[in-house]
Amino acid sequence: MAVWAINWQTVRAFLACATCWRVAVGLAGMTRLGLDYAGVDAMLRRRGFDDVDFADLQLMEEAALEAFGEVAEGN
């Protein structure tokens, strides 16, 4: 799957934060709760991303949670 050039910076930010997910583990298994914004902030700042990249990353986070099936559509 190709990534448009205009979206590449956001994809890089999302991939940089791959280890920043908050999860809950219980009898039903693991559920992703969302990104840990303290960790995300540190990662993005250290790698030179800006506030626009963070806002775009939040959109990707929401889409990822929907794809993971852990957020109902419309929430």
Estimate the helix proportion, in percent.
Answer: 40-55%
Structural class: alpha+beta
Please indicate the percent range of residues in DSSP E strands (runs of 2 or more).
Answer: 15-25%
Whole-number tally of structural domains: 1
Q: Largest sheet, if any?
A: 2 strands, antiparallel
* Beta-strand segment tally: 2
Q: Could you give the order of the helices and strands?
A: HEEHH
Distance between the termini: 27 Å
Would you summarize the structure shown here?
By secondary structure, the chain is α+β, with helices and mostly antiparallel strands. It has one domain.
Give descriptors for this structure:
single chain; 75 residues; alpha+beta; two-stranded antiparallel ribbon; 3 helices; globular
Would you give an account of this structure?
This protein has 75 residues and is of the alpha+beta class. The protein has one domain (5-68). It is built from three helices and two strands. It has helices at 8-16, 37-46, 51-68, and strands at 21-26, 29-35. Strands 1-2 form a two-stranded antiparallel ribbon. Helix 1 packs across helix 3. The longest helix has 18 residues, at 51-68. The radius of gyration is 13 Å and the shape is globular.
